[in-house]
Design brief:
Length: 344
């Protein structure tokens, strides 16, 4: 026999919610939510009483699910539910103020679920990094700093003076990507932060520009014809295959196509078949470009992957390199996708 007090308490919460909602204002909307349970089912919940607005479609919510709590995604709002209101539970917490996925990726996740006959909750939630699926905050970790326009007296602190001198070669607003070439790490900035010589800066999306570190090679006639044909079609959908033996110059063609995209204010995604090729390609890209380059692959920790995913979605990476799953990364103003070693 079920515990009557527990039964009354559970149903009483939902019934009290309904009475308060009706008395407060006429809002009869329900939330349809998907959860990564392996079930082909959309679950209906009530919005929280204290929320003046419904969470947007695509936002994460924390919901009670059996005896546990799960992270779900709002997929729709509804004005009708076949279940009685006292059987429904309100969401526990709204985790996002805006949707995490841009509309094209949201549509891709829904299409994949329908095409492959896969549960929608699994398809959509697995587009997100592990840490976000676990309910962690999507707030971008402050990894950007701003150097003040000053000439501090650091003669008695030679280590700080060295760090300050190295920072002069970086942009006024810089991030972790800029520190490595200056042979610095984030921990080296602590004392300068304490003195107020640098401050944490809010990252903002910038238009990509072509920042060449090394000169481009001269293309031969065949490379030039290939480059010209592809570059003329970059503003529209087109698909091209570069086929040639090792050393025939395929990489140089797409390096110059990357430069062309950056000049047009667009970003580039490069997919590689395995992690082992990522480091080699990153080295090649860093020899040619001084743009912000992000890496996404399973060799990173969950936190590192979340950091890179967030930086990409904020437009803080101009060139993104990753394995197959990187295709699900939000990339503003994406102009070119390169699938390296496509046959693998």
């Amino acid at each position: 026999m079920p515990d009557s007090d527990s039964h009354l308490k559970t149903n009483g919460v939902a019934w009290l919610w309904c009475q308060q909602r009706i008395l407060a204002k006429p809002l009869s909307t329900y939330l349809n939510i998907v959860i990564a349970t392996g079930l082909r089912q959309v679950f209906t919940y009530l919005p929280r009483l204290e929320d003046s607005a419904l969470p947007a479609i695509g936002c994460r919510v924390l919901v009670p699910f059996g005896r546990s709590q799960r992270v779900g995604l709002v997929v729709s709002h509804a004005d009708h539910c076949d279940l009685p209101a006292e059987k429904l539970k309100p969401v526990l917490e709204v985790l996002d103020s805006t949707p995490l996925l841009p509309e094209p990726l949201w549509q891709l996740g829904n299409w994949a679920a329908n095409y492959y006959q896969h549960p929608k909750g699994d398809a959509l939630l697995h587009l997100l990094p592990v840490r976000l699926r676990q309910g962690h905050n999507n707030q971008m970790i402050s990894r950007f700093w701003q150097r003040l326009d000053t000439n501090p007296e650091l003669s008695r602190a030679p280590k700080q003076a060295h760090v300050w001198q190295q920072l002069q070669s970086l942009p006024k607003i810089f991030n972790e990507h800029h520190l490595a070439p200056a042979q610095l790490a984030a921990k080296d900035l602590k004392l300068l932060l304490d003195k107020g010589l640098i401050t944490a800066a809010q990252p903002s999306q910038a238009t990509p520009i072509n920042q060449l570190r090394g000169p481009a090679l001269t293309l031969n006639d065949e490379q030039q014809r290939t480059y010209t044909k592809i570059s003329q079609q970059l503003r529209q959908f087109s698909c091209h295959l570069l086929q040639g033996v090792t050393g025939s110059g395929k990489t140089e063609v797409y390096l110059q196509l990357i430069a062309h995209c950056l000049e047009q204010g667009q970003r580039v995604l490069i997919l590689v078949p395995e992690i082992g090729l990522t480091h080699q390609l990153l080295a090649r890209l860093e020899e040619r470009f001084s743009n912000a380059i992000l890496a996404l692959h399973s060799g990173l920790t969950d936190q590192q992957r979340l950091d890179a995913w967030q930086q990409s979605s904020l437009g803080q990476g101009d060139i993104i390199v990753g394995t197959r799953s990187a295709i699900f990364t939000p990339i503003p103003d994406l102009g070119l996708i390169i699938v390296d070693e496509e046959h693998d």
